[in-house]
Amino acid sequence: MQLRIAALADYTNITDNGKLNILGIFSQIHAEHVPATHAQMQLVLQFAFEPLEAGEKTIRIVLQDADAHELLAMEGTLQLAQPTTPDPIVVNQIVVLQNVTFPNFGSYEFVIQVDGEIIPAYVPVDILQVRAPAP
Description:
The chain is mainly β and 135 residues long. The chain contains no helices and 10 strands.
């Protein structure tokens, strides 16, 4: 298994012919104060599995702070059908996240696991303080 793409974006979609479109990739959110709530973001992942890996896969995604405290966790399964060719099984996943609240300024990251194994991918998001304009 290989994680080919892992990014946080404003918007993503998959076309009818399987193309993955990603708009507005970012890794920083600017806020005047915390807790800071981000209205919407999309975590986009593209996996490539070898044909011998066909079957059911459990995916777990965790958003955690710099001290590894979980802000949110999601889990689901993928059913990978046995392919008829020796080509990799490519799977695109879009996770729409709405109204995620970050309690503090600082660094956060998404951790991705497949069948209990942490995938070496770093999807960071930093919450940075901006000063309000003076009146």
